[in-house]
Each structure stands twice: as C-alpha cells, then as structure tokens.
Recover the amino acids of this structure.
C-alpha cells in the first residue's frame, strides 16, 4: 500500500474513518458489558476537551511542560488519599493497568537486586485469578511465576497456599482488589501478614476496581481491607480509564514510599542525544490522557462517583438475582463489586453468548482455567443500568435457545482424549492446521463463536496461547482485498 500521492480531502477522510468503525462494537447502546466505561455525554465531553487541549504536549520532559508534572502529582495525591495512604505515598501516571503492573514488578525486582543480590532467580507468587498482565510482566522481566489455586467457592486467593509457595527466591506477593474474572477482593490483610513475616513486597492490583471500592464501602457494602491502611501492602495499581471513567490511557502506580519507587525510574546518559529520564515505560507521550483524567476526576467529583457506585450496586444486585432466578444458570460467587462471572452446569455457555450477541448484547466468554469453569463475564456499568430488565429477558430466551443447539464434536474429542496434541511437535504449520480445525480462518472469523470457544476451552492453556499467537501473527498483515 502506498501513501496517497495527493492528500485526501478532510471530509472524505472522516467519512472513511466513520465507515471503518461502522462494524465496531456499539458501545453507546448500553448493551455492552465490557471494554468501554462510558460516563455519559456530559462527562465524555469534558474528557474529550481536556484530551485535545493537551494532545500535543509531550510528557517526555516535565521541565518543559511543568503543567504535566503538576497534573501527575495532583492525580497521585488524590489517589493516595483515596487509598488510605499518607504523605509518604508516591506514584506515577501510566498508560494503563498493564504498564502500572509491569512497573511495580520491575521496581520489586530491582529493589531485591539491590538489597538481596544473592537471589539470582526471583519469583513472584500469583493466585490463579491474578490478571494476565502479571504473566506478561514476568515474561518481559524474567521473573519466575509460582501460580497457586484459589478458593473453589469464593474464588478469593488462599493465603495458606500462597504461604506454602514462598521459597528463598520469592520477592513479591500479589493480590487483587477485586479480581477481574469473579469481581472479588482477595484477603489482602492475610497476604500483608505473610509479606511482613517473610520480608517480601506485596502488590495489590486494584486496576479494575480500586477506585470504586471506597465508594461501595461508603454505601454499606462489607469489603475486605485492601489499601495502604493494610500493613505489608507496598504498592498498588489503580486504573483511571476503567471505573473512574476517564478516557483511555490512564492508570496510576502507587508505592508506600520513595525507597521502593526509586527502582521504577530509569535514566540514561549513555548516548549522544538528550539525557533520558523516564518514570514509566513510555518516553515521548501525549499529555492528553493525563489532562483528561485530571479534568474528569475533578468534574465528576466525590459525590458524582458515589452516585455512580450507588447505581451500579443496585444494577448488579438486580442482575445477580435475575441470573439466579434462571434455572439453568448460576453466579459463580457473590461479587464484591460490579464484575461477575456466571455459568451453567446444563447448557453450553458459549451458545448462550452467541445468542446474546444475536440479540445485540456483548457479554464476554471466559475459558476454563484451573477450578474456574468456562463462564460468561459481565463488567457492569452505569450505561447498562437502564437496560437490566431487557438484558434478563433476552438472557432467559438465549438460555432456552442454547438448549436446542449442539455442542462441538471437536471439543468433545479433545476432552475425551481422542484428539490429543503432542506439544513437543508443534510448529507454525501444525498450529495453522489446528486453527482451521477449531474453526478460525484468519481472513474471516465465524459469526458464531461457540464452536471455537468450546474447542479452545477444552485445550490446555499453552496450546491456546500458541494458537492465538499464530493467529495474531497472521492477522496483523495488510491484505489487498481488505479494502471495501
Ligand atoms: C484487575 C486488572 N488488572 C489489570 C488489568 C490490565 O489493565 P489494562 O487493560 O488497562 O492494561 C485489568 C484489565 O481489565 C484488570 O481487570
């Protein structure tokens, strides 16, 4: 593809962009339970305005853009207070939960390198419910993961199992507040005790819900303690671009004090250009997300967030009750916030998801992992509140329809062992074959995904990962006939 010889006129360009996104998820519909955290048109407008106002400012250098330094410090100070921190708490603004987590893990690794250099192969202990971003951090930073199971009923981390997994190489414990999949807060107090007893660091991943949990507590919800008031908690990640409703590209990573945060910062003076000093992974970065986050936080304000929490709490209760009232469904555990997982022991959940899609809803599939069976995930939002009754009506109809649909024969063969895969022989070609068998064509995904999801769910995680990497490696390639 070539850069057009002559520039395309403005109107035409925007028409093209509109056309490109016409097949995207319609997040404005209120029928979407994930991906987009929409606070409604008024707040959206505030975010957009601040975003464009600072779009061109560059966070590469806070000495030339002191406004960004001020915005960052104010955001961190508000977050620290919100999470029970004192004046010693420090932190930084990042592009998202994953970057916050990577930085917290890097700080932990380098802190231990400095203080306990005898640890050559550092390990972190992850409950099965800890977000995949920790596995990514471990992969990037060469940290060994010790994964431990979670309570089969509550899906909370099991502190006793975490304790058993501690070795002389352990550097970091991790808890979620709440976990993405089941929406429950881990026993952070117990993890804090373990961390202190063994001189370890403890990171609390409050990316998805840390911002909302204090409001839930103020509304009378009983929740485990999870923030800096808990002894032993040394760092917390908390996204703003989720339930603080700020535009994307906004998260915070906070540390109990500067002694640990120091190990997150990177400086390099070993080249011929400007001296580089970065407190996050990105270097040049737009000031837009930060300014938008600052503006939205200040615009919604404490009372606004409390009201958002109240509405979501009410909607979640109605959804949980509604799901429980459908005979074939069960909520996997009572969620602490507005994220939940539900499943069925009698109906194929992946067919239910396809049926819900055909009614115009987006609900997310989650594959079987450890003691968490395949399920349907909901991240409930203010935009969903007025649609709860319609959602439950369509859900009931979808369950009935799903009962009449057949399950995947391939998935059954995988589960029964009659279709087994030799991991040691897997190369790109075999993966492509399996992809096709499973029903994934790189050029066009099937409209109904139940068969694909069911087969993936039946496969071991390492094969799922291999398949998805091959798929994405093929998908992200320009194809001439993609143009329509
Ligand atoms: C608990 C938790 N941690 C981390 C992340 C990663 O955040 P991001 O997608 O902003 O990188 C998520 C995303 O959903 C999350 O729910």
């Amino acid at each position: 593809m070539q850069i057009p010889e002559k520039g395309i006129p403005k109107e035409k360009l925007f028409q093209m962009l509109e056309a490109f996104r016409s097949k995207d998820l319609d997040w404005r519909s209120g029928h979407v339970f994930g991906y987009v955290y929409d606070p409604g048109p008024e707040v959206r407008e505030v975010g957009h305005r601040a975003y464009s106002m600072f779009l061109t400012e560059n966070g590469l250098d806070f000495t030339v853009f002191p406004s960004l330094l001020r915005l960052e410090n104010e955001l961190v100070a508000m977050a620290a207070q919100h999470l029970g921190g004192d004046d010693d708490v420090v932190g930084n603004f990042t592009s998202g939960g994953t970057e916050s987590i990577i930085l917290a893990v890097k700080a932990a690794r380098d802190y231990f390198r400095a203080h306990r250099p005898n640890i050559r192969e550092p390990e972190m202990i992850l409950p099965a419910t800890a977000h995949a971003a920790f596995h990514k951090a471990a992969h990037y930073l060469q940290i060994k993961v010790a994964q431990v199971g979670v309570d089969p009923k509550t899906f909370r981390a099991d502190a006793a199992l975490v304790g058993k997994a501690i070795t002389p190489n352990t550097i970091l414990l991790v808890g979620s507040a709440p976990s993405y999949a089941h929406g429950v807060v881990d026993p952070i107090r117990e993890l804090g005790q373990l961390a202190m007893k063994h001189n370890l660091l403890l990171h609390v991943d409050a990316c998805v819900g840390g911002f909302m949990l204090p409001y839930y507590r103020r509304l009378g919800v009983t929740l485990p303690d999870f923030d800096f008031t808990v002894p032993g908690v040394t760092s917390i990640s908390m996204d703003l671009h989720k339930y603080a409703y700020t535009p994307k590209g906004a998260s915070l990573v906070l540390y109990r004090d500067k002694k640990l945060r120091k190990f997150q910062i990177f400086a390099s003076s070993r080249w011929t250009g400007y001296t580089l000093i970065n407190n996050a992974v990105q270097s040049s970065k737009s000031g837009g997300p930060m300014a938008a986050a600052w503006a939205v936080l200040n615009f919604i304000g404490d009372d606004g967030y409390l009201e958002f929490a109240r509405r979501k709490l009410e909607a979640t209760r109605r959804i949980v009750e509604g799901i429980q009232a459908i005979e074939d469904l069960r909520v996997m555990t009572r969620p602490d916030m507005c994220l939940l997982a539900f499943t069925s022991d009698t109906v194929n959940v992946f067919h239910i998801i396809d049926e819900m899609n055909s009614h115009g809803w987006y609900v997310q599939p989650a594959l079987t992992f450890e003691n968490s069976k395949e399920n349907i995930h909901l991240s409930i939002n203010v935009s969903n509140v007025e649609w709860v009754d319609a959602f439950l009506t369509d859900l009931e109809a979808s369950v009935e329809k799903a009962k009449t649909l057949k399950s995947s024969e391939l998935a059954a063969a995988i589960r029964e062992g009659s279709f087994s895969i030799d991991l040691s022989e897997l190369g790109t070609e075999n993966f492509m074959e399996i992809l096709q068998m499973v029903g994934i064509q790189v050029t066009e995904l099937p409209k109904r995904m139940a068969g694909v999801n069911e087969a993936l769910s039946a496969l071991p995680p390492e094969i799922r990962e291999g398949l998805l990497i091959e798929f994405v490696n093929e998908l992200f390639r320009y194809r001439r006939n993609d143009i329509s």
User: Anything to note?
Assistant: The two ends are 14 Å apart (CA to CA).
